[in-house]
Amino acid sequence: MDWGMENRLKQLMPHGKCFFMPIDHGYFQGPTRSLEKPGETIKPLLPYFDALFCTRGVLRSAIDTAIDKPIILRVSGCTSMVGKDLANEELTTSVEEVIRVNAAAVGISVFIGSDYEKETLKNLSAMVNECERYGIPVMAVTAVGKEMEKREARYLGLCCRIAAELGARVVKTYWCEKDFDKVVSGCPVPVIMAGGPKCETELEVLEFVHDGMQKGAVGLNLGRNVWQSPHPVAIAKALNAIVHKNASLKEASEILVKAKEIKK
Q1: Which structural domains are found in the chain, ordered by start?
Q2: 260 catalytic, yes or no?
């Protein structure tokens, strides 16, 4: 592996594990609760996540240039919640722009099984072709749009493997309750868990993250279940312990409770 590529991956995944903080939701759903001022939202969370996943617009307008976390730049979009199909994405950002803003990696969605499967996979391939020239990792995001029922192991395993085959250095996918270990074992590059819809309880978040880490995921890319929580710092601290300290579910729950008490 080229030195630059390896260096960037080690920045993103210290000791091979990672907790990415996505705040890119506005690119398809517009104003998002708790992200009205993204720079303020992430300030108290900075000690607990490893990299920030955002669009170039938010990066330039809302994120302090002194931030000491690597940036993963969202490079696909052009669709919205009110449009006909979220899967009909295009590339939105050039590799020159990625380099200009000093991003450590890029993230791009692929919609396997949709009407735009081929187009989104071509987007991924094109970005890999360009980014590999400069040693920039590409994270493929196995998106499913509104069809959340597709989150089962056979489908997710297919998505992850195809993304890896096309050159993604990392794959972000959804956790599934059954056979998630098969999803991970069938993918030759690191698998990172997405947060998905906001969970009902904080314990539910800790449970699926802990299970996924035990079954081979290297980390998580989880936003709404953190910054939309009534206790964002507490949940971030507990998740960090699961990812980087191999905390048990019981230990993580105790960290969560103690962090809440400190806040009071």
Answers
A1: 3-224 (3.20.20.70)
A2: no
